[in-house]
Amino acid sequence: MRTALWRRRSALAAALCTAAATAVLAVAPPSAAAPAGPPARPAAPATPSPSLTDHPLTAAPSPLDNPLKGFARFYFPGDNQNSGYPRSLAWSYFGLSEVMTSATNCATYDWSIVDNALNEIASYGNQAAIRLYMEYPGGTGSHPGNAIPHCFDGHVTYRNNTFWGTVSPDYDSPYLLSAVSNFIAAFGARYDGDPRIGFINLGLVGLWGEWHTWPFDTDTADGYPNLMPTDAHGAQVIQAFDTAFNKTKLEVRYPDSAGGAANTRDIGYHDDSFCYREGSPLAGVTLPQSMGGADYAQLQRALNMGVENKWITSSMGGEVRPEIQSSAFSSWPGGSGQVDNMKACIELEHTTWKINQTSQSYSPTDPNVAAAVRLMGYDLSATHAYYQNTVSGSTATVGVTLANNGVAPFYYPWTVTLGLKDSAGTVVKTWDTPWDLRTVQPLKIRAFPDWGVGADPTYRDFGYPQYFQSAVSLTGVATGSYQLVMRVKNPLEALSPAAKKLRFGNTTQNADGWLGLGGIGVGTTGSDTTAPSTPGGLASPAKTASSVSLTWTASTDNVGVTGYQILRGGTQVGTATGTSYTDSGLSASTAYTYTIRAYDAAGNVSAASSPLTVTTNAGGGTDTTAPSTPAGLASPAKTASSVSLTWTASTDNVGVTGYRVLRGGTQVGTATGTSYTDSGLTASTAYTYTVQAYDAAGNVSAASSPLTVTTNAGGGGGGIGLDDFDGNPAYPSAAKNDLAKWTGGNCFLNGGGNGVVAGGALTLQYNNCGWFGSDVNTDVSAYTYLVVRIKGNAGGEQSHFNLSLGGTTKVFGDYTLDGGGHPAITTAYQDIKIPLVANGISRTSPGQLAMGFWYGGNSSISIEHFSFTN
Predict the structure, then answer these.
(1) Is 51 exposed, middle or buried (0-12, 13-18, 19+ CB in 10 A)?
(2) What is the H or E stretch that residue 411 is in?
(3) Which of residues 739 and 13 earns the better pLDDT score?
(4) Across the strands, what pairs with 753?
(5) How far is Cα 507 from Cα 505, in angstroms, rounded to an integer?
(6) Contact, 743 vs 775, CB < 8 A?
(7) Domain 380-522 has CATH 1.10.287
(8) Which CATH class name applies to 717-870?
(9) What is the DSSP string of 138-198?
């Protein structure tokens, strides 16, 4: 049975933010006997030697930017890779033709474009997840839409995917399969085990390298021929990757890609519609049918193939569906609307990482997002250290118990190192151990309802607190008191001093990567086991709407105080070496409770200070003066359905933030400048307007003198309106345009990444990142023009974005208008009429109207409508 799956592919242009394109995948998963069922628990670990002293360690929240987990954002050359929400991963596409550059020799490769990206990503301390492709609808802006190497020309048959306007190579061609296999072998020889790369996605096949070519796929009943390779030939590609890469983790889109050819190999899966719900009624595309998912959902496919436990050895990546990124964690741990049960998605897929471009605008203090990020992948803490407090011989035995509170193991054999720090905090001795972090499996796993082991949610014991033990040589270590420490070496440190450190969820975890295990004495000197005195006098000498400054009196210690831990609400938020600290990024008018603890070089921690509760200032400060009343309200233009308004600027003692526009006494929109267009009105109708100014403190002026305007009589004329942005359907929550088809945006600076609809217009604020899409998927052969009613904040924005429609993608200012001119955006609304045929836009298969903002521009545009007319 074939199933049509409507989904939107993130069409991130260039190294762009994410985007969406409608695609129907009619891929029937191969049949399988049954789900695998609950996995057997690993063998229980060894127990500590009774001769060693137990040193319990205190848990604390783990860092949000631990390596190889959490959110990845797209790589943009020259961008600050560490701005926004904490992360350690970057995602990038590359076209195959950008590496296979010779037109005559498919066996020569230019890796510079890959190396340049990897080097820049590594310079920020991050690791990359990458994919190569041959066909990408519309291109990415900096990478080609057609990335078929020219050395295939004359040897491989090319076919047209007329829905997407792409060219597909014959994936069954022996010439192609040989060239691709040779490329993959060279790819692995160069990059397998490269510390700059965390994950490689098995692309190369299909649209975006996603292993589908909808609608030209295996479901030929719709009249479209099949452009996908046979399962046997797809399996050849998968086998080539598996042979070439034995160290770097691999992922493929579906558990049933190429008939499930990856399922017996060390290859994970890549769900790039993660935790989304679609259709009517809504059904999940990640969770299985037993939890309200569709029959084509990612985890249903895994259950069908019996590979739902593949995560034990293979990573699970993908992308949070672009349409829900701005609201994905608003209802954590559950979901709402198109967001499915997010905690269940993470727990049952055993998610390690996801592309999430909108995470750049998440608050670092959002507790929902933090809970999700910590749950993803591994979340390691040291629960106990075992060693003798004083060692007088030439060796010492050290044991550590590690627990994993995440949903997946750490997938790489990074080296675990023990060390000694002296009283000055200097590491004076280190020992590498054979300890394998990959064996620290999650303590609990969530059961699928399909397993029949209990009502959802049912959690089963799986991993154990894993015990590791090594004997270390004390040769050359001077007699004295030390702090015993442990760290995990990120191999990227050999290439980049900024490499993110793998850190544990413990109070004694230091930013340098070293985890304090406790004090130890070498020789005849006893170890330091005395904690510093409790800090006193905690006070707040200053505060703002977003920060609290703290001071306290110094603690004392028998050896010396190393520093102080600052706790907000019982959770450590920072450390200080002195007696002051400023906590930033807070919410206005909110009470926060702080305590302070002192610690020494031996890892001894004092009791917490007396708590101090501080309420941040109100966001408006002390400004109580309203702006002056707007004047000169006028209407320079009107239509049958809209009224344009202008007025003179108000003044304010601090500054005017914006203006409220009222129609009949009810606010219908806001504006930051002195103009506004009210749309969606009725023809031949009188409307009365007033305008009020407001400032950042919330002070509002008196209303302007009223202005009554009568709209023009209706003119008819026909045409199709794609969207007039009148707020019905609601944007972005309804995700529908006026054709009742999908629409949405991502990576904009306003509206949580989606842009904002207000006052009858969609305003998109951008800074070299942004994507907007609106599905047409309607034959517009009866119409001559695409009409875009648009204005810019500064004018000249036509060079800041491209527009894709019906197989054509051009920078907006490069479209040709009647008479040979080109679009030029001004600060006033105008109708820009783009001839469809003259610009090569398919009217029979227009597909999706999409705009990508990745050309270095920093501004905003407002659009009143898209329509097709004569």
Answers:
(1) exposed
(2) none
(3) 739
(4) none
(5) 7
(6) yes
(7) no
(8) mainly beta
(9) T--SSS-SB---GGGTTTS-EEEETTTTEEEE-TT-HHHHHHHHHHHHHHHHHHTT-TTEE
- Distance between CA 5 and CA 632 in Å, rounded? 54
Scored b (16 or more CB within 10 A) or e, 475-492 reads eebeebbbbbbbbbbbbb
Nearest to 559 by CA among 597, 600, 598: 600
Residue where the block lists tokens 């060796």? 395
Q: How far apart are CA 307 and CA 269, in angstroms?
A: 10
Query: Which 3 state secondary structure label does DSSP give 237?
Result: helix
Residue 20 in this model has a pLDDT that exceeds 70: no
d(CA 337, CA 184): 41
Q: How does strand 22-25 pair with strand 353-355?
A: unpaired
Token pair listed for 562: 């190393």
The Cα 603–Cα 597 span in angstroms is: 12
pLDDT of 333 strictly over 60? yes
Pairing state between β 756-758 and 707-710: unpaired
What is the distance between the alpha carbons of residues 51 and 672, in angstroms, rounded to a whole number? 72
As a whole number of angstroms, the distance between CA 633 and CA 466 comes to 73
Stated length of the chain = 870
Please name the CATH architecture into which domain 620-714 falls: Sandwich (2.60)
- Give the C-alpha separation, 366 to 590, whole Å: 14
Q: What distance in Å separates the CA atoms of residue 625 and residue 243, rounded to the nearest whole number?
A: 71
pLDDT at 320 over 50: yes
- State the pLDDT at residue 752: 78
Pair of tokens at residue 347: 């727990």
The predicted pLDDT at position 622 comes to: 58
Q: Is 680 exposed, middle or buried (0-12, 13-18, 19+ CB in 10 A)?
A: middle
Q: Is the CATH number of domain 536-615 3.30.1320.10?
A: no
182-187's contacts with Cβ under 8 Å and 24+ in sequence apart are 182/106, 182/107, 183/96, 183/99, 183/100, 183/106, 183/109, 184/237, 184/240, 184/241, 184/244, 185/240, 185/243, 185/244, 186/109, 187/132, 187/244
Q: What per-residue string of b and e applies to 187-208 under the rule 16 or more CB within 10 Å gives b?
A: bbeebeebbbbbbbbbbbbbbb
Per-residue tokens: 130: 């990458």
Phi first, then psi: give them for residue 322, nearest 5 degrees: -55, -35
What's the pLDDT at 527? 64
pLDDT the model gives residue 727: 86
The answer to whether 856 and 141 have CB atoms below 8 angstroms apart is: no
Positions of CATH 2.60.120.430 in the chain: 717-870
Average the pLDDT over 404-411 and give the result.
99
Give the C-alpha distances (Å, rounded to integers) separating 742 from 521, 729, 807: 67, 11, 18
Any idea which residue has 């407001």 for tokens?
694
